[in-house]
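Design a sequence for this backbone.
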């Protein structure tokens, strides 16, 4: 059993150092962030200024202000002795080998004998940094390469040296995955490790296509983005986000360090990249790079004139039709076979990528799985290079590589000779993708793939028909084993469509009359639930089907109340966005396991409505129960908070913040690694069942009546006067205040949940009939952004 780190120090308060410190604090560690002493009286000025700047970053680096307070600032002159008490020291100073070596010498004289020391370098050989230190020090030293931004990118490359103790490496993998929420990949101590070595190769392939092969920036980004399962920022928007000066620095360090690389010539700094960097066109941080936004228009650089020009029409016949194919694997296969410019680009760049990735093994990693995980977790690819190879067809790609006279390493040829047709295989030698695979072909033969035992991946569950217990077109019930079942949304955007709501009701009926121990509500997508199906609601409103809408609202309220007080444990497994009705579903679940990166909120006022499926009621009850006493003066501050939260359609930026806003119960379980959520939710069901599950008791609560409503109305007036709210926003806020304070009640009163649910229904339907509300719904559906009217 490994021991978790409780204290850490980050040396170097640059862009990466401050963000690494913040993420360690998010994980609950006490963190010392240090940098050079400033001249003059205030020696903490450098580190304080850097941390203040980092706290203004968007998206934010800390879960909450409480996390930020766990970071203790210091400087090397006055506070270096603090390092004697820390469990883990991370070096993140300037990329200068001599400076890093001097710092290691000073560290060895201070840190404990059991403290782990790591470097976040991305460009220097790890083994050289601690080369002059004692063997004891070197056994506790390794590289820990976080990807920027550390809070949001999952990849953590661990780079042991020959001296690194295997137990230290195992502890770092365990802690990184479980406590930091990282996907830890072990890389070799080679230039740029795994992710940046492959990632830079792909970026420079794109620049080469721009400058030498006649493709436009827009065409390349269309062919390297979501179409092929990669982020929509694709090649050139990603480069602008990373920073062209950063790309230049990485390339300048890499080229001289890889004399034996068969594709070394590609890593020579492209003249276009150097010109852009020299003129200060460094990307997003400079306002221009490969792209430049002028007003509402997005311009792109002309590779020869360096002038920014409006986007020209793309010349990619056949791509639009392929893009309509929902299945990624089928899109990739169709694009690979597509004649013309688009197919040529995809074939040439893909073959180059796959050849290069194969040739880097075992140089940069021992297994294709490490490379695939690095690219998926560090760059947001849905398929890594070897998964892509399997998808396109092992022998087809190999044949095309040979025809293109690309380098093919002996180990890949040996795979072909043995009769294998895939890198990855699952049980019974069935070809499969990495999440389901049990073995992978490597340069040393077929090797098992290590999968954590405390994660449940739905592709694995879905692969076996016996796990499917029930389904309709937009939802399914899956058997997770041990008497626990999972209700999974499959609707577009995981919205709460009629089929999803009806399906959940049918599943509860099924649970009533069998021996299942409990239910998990969750799914395998990036986001838990996008809320109510606005398309269905908008169409019903246009057709003036008011009775049907009223009936649906009653049905949904009743369903959520049934979930809340069900006689068997029900646990929501939440990740990503849970908005509107999705938030109300989460709030109704009596038990929740949430990924730390859960973004939960009641956003209905943005479309001209109020939370009408118990969300308003639950926040009113939360305010009353959070107060020190039943006195109105104690309840009012909490009521003010929930009022502003809903009126401003505020979305929690983390699960921790969701607790503070009342969207999650204080005792909800938060997991740093979102991949654990389904497993932990299942274990929670089993625990509750073993203890003899007792449903939550239904209790009445205090609302404040007319006096409390007046206070909320005044806050709405102030928001309008401060131009934070339109006149219609203020009207909507008044309707919200009406429900929160008990409707027509003139004085504080003890009310039931059903009383406020009735008020929600009274307000919701008339709001949906308002032209301005319908305009907001239509605008969101057509323009994909909210309307302020």
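Sequence:
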């Amino acid at each position: 059993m490994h021991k978790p780190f409780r204290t850490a120090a980050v040396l170097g308060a640059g862009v990466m150092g401050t963000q690494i410190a913040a993420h360690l604090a998010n994980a609950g560690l006490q963190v010392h962030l240090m940098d050079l002493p400033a001249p003059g009286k205030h020696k903490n000025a450098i580190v304080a200024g850097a941390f203040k700047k980092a706290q203004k970053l968007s998206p934010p680096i800390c879960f909450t202000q409480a996390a930020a307070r766990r970071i203790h600032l210091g400087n090397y002159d006055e506070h270096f002795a603090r390092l004697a008490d820390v469990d883990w020291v991370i070096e993140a100073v300037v990329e200068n080998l001599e400076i890093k070596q001097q710092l290691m010498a000073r560290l060895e004289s201070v840190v404990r004998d059991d403290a782990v020391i790591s470097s976040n370098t991305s460009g220097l050989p790890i083994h050289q940094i601690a080369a002059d230190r004692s063997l004891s020090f070197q056994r506790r030293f390794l590289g820990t390469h976080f990807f920027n931004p550390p809070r949001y990118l999952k990849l953590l490359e661990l780079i042991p040296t020959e001296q690194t103790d295997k137990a230290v490496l195992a502890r770092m993998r365990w802690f990184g995955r479980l406590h930091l929420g990282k996907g830890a990949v072990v890389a070799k101590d080679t230039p740029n490790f795994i992710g940046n070595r492959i990632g830079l190769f792909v970026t420079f392939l794109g620049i080469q296509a721009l400058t030498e092969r006649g493709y436009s920036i827009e065409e390349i980004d269309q062919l390297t983005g979501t179409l092929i399962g990669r982020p929509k920022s694709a090649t050139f928007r990603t480069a602008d986000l990373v920073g062209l000066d950063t790309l230049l620095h990485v390339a300048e360090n890499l080229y001289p360090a890889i004399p034996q690389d068969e594709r070394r010539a590609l890593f020579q700094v492209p003249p276009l990249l150097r010109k852009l960097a020299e003129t200060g066109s460094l990307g997003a941080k400079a306002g221009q790079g490969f792209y430049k936004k002028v007003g509402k228009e997005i311009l792109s650089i002309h590779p020869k004139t360096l002038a920014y020009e409006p986007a020209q029409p793309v010349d990619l016949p056949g791509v639009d039709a392929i893009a309509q194919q929902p299945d990624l694997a089928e899109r990739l296969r169709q694009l690979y076979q597509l004649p013309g410019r688009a197919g040529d680009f995809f074939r040439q760049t893909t073959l180059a990528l796959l050849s290069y990735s194969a040739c880097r093994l075992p140089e940069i990693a021992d297994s294709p799985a490490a490379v695939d995980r690095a690219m998926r977790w560090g760059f947001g690819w849905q398929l890594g290079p070897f998964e892509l190879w399997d998808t396109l067809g092992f022998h087809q790609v190999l044949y095309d590589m040979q025809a293109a006279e690309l380098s093919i390493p002996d180990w890949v040829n040996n795979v072909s000779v043995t009769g294998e047709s895939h890198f990855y295989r699952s049980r019974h030698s069935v070809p499969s993708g990495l999440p389901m695979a049990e073995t992978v072909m490597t340069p040393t033969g077929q090797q098992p793939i290590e999968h954590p035992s405390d994660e449940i991946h739905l592709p694995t569950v879905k692969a076996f028909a016996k796990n499917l217990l029930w389904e309709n077109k937009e939802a399914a019930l899956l058997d997770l084993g041990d008497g626990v079942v999972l209700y999974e949304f499959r609707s577009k955007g995981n919205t709460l469509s009629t089929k999803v709501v009806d399906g959940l009701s049918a599943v509860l009926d099924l649970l009533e009359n069998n021996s299942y121990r409990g239910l998990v509500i969750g799914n395998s997508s990036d986001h838990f639930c996008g809320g109510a199906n606005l398309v269905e609601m908008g169409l019903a409103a246009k057709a003036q089907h008011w009775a049907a809408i009223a009936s649906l609202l009653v049905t949904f309220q009743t369903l959520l109340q049934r979930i809340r007080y069900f006689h068997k444990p029900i646990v929501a497994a939440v990740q990503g966005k849970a908005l509107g009705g999705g938030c109300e579903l989460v709030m109704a679940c009596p038990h929740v396991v949430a990924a730390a990166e859960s973004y939960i909120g009641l956003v209905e006022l943005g479309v001209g409505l109020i939370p009408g499926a118990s969300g308003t009621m639950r926040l009113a009850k939360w305010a009353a129960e959070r107060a020190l006493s039943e006195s109105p003066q104690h309840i009012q501050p909490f009521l003010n908070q929930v009022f502003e939260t809903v009126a401003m359609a505020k979305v929690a930026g983390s699960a921790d913040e969701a607790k503070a806003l009342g969207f999650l119960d204080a005792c909800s379980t938060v997991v740093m690694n979102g991949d654990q959520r389904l497993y932990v939710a299942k274990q929670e069901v089993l625990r509750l069942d073993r203890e003899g599950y007792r449903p939550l008791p239904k209790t009445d609560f205090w609302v404040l009546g007319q006096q409390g409503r007046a206070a909320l109305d005044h806050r709405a007036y102030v928001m309008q006067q401060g131009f934070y709210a339109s006149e219609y926003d203020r009207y909507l806020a008044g309707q919200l205040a009406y429900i929160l304070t008990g409707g027509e009640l003139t004085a504080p009163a003890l009310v039931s949940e059903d009383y406020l649910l009735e008020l929600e229904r009274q307000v919701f339907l008339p709001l949906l009939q308002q032209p301005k509300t319908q305009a907001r719904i239509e605008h969101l559906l057509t323009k994909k952004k909210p309307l302020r009217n």
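Residues 341-359 form the longest helix (19 residues).
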